[in-house]
Amino acid sequence: MTEVKDRLLGYINGELLAERALVAGPETPLFADGWIDSLSILKLIAYLELITGREIPDEEIVMKNFQTVNTIAERFATERQ
Q1: Using the 8-state DSSP alphabet, how is residue 17 labeled?
Q2: What residues make up the domain containing 48?
Q3: Cα-to-chain-centroid distance, residue 21
Q4: What is the pLDDT of residues 43-52, one digit of tens each?
Q5: Would you say 66 and 23 are in contact if contact means Cβ atoms under 8 Å apart?
Q6: DSSP letters for the chain
Q7: Is 81 part of a structural domain of the chain?
Q8: Which residue in 6, 15, 53, 81 has the fewest CB atoms around it within 10 Å?
Q9: Diameter of the chain measured on Cα atoms
Q10: Is 1 within 8 Å of 69 (Cβ atoms)?
Q11: Are 46 and 52 in contact (CB under 8 A)?
């Protein structure tokens, strides 16, 4: 799970937030504070699918699963049954 967290943080900070000169941490509220917008979430989901090797079902794309990098990694870094 740590590798997924590190890769997500690198992607968010290096790609999604680079122009805004912001640096997110593992517990940064990505949406509540407006760090990530609705367009960026699509890029984030595509990247998450790439690094985890699995498709994220539409029903799992809800705010509670994408609150922070830690939340995302906990939900999607391990294989779900």
Answers
A1: S
A2: 2-76
A3: 18
A4: 999 999 999 9
A5: no
A6: -HHHHHHHHHHIIIIISGGGT----TT--TTTTTSS-HHHHHHHHHHHHHHHTS---GGG-SGGGSSSHHHHHHHHSS---
A7: no
A8: 81
A9: 38
A10: no
A11: no
CATH for 18: 1.10.1200.10
**Res 1 pLDDT > 80:** no
Q: How many domains does the chain have?
A: 1
Question: With the C-alpha atoms ordered 59, 39, 17, 29, is the resulting torsion angle positive or negative?
Answer: negative
**Residue in 33, 31, 25, 36 with CA at minimum distance from that of residue 69:** 25
What pLDDT, on the 0 to 100 scale, is given for residue 81?
34
Q: What is the predicted pLDDT for the residue at 79?
A: 57
pLDDT at 38 over 90: no
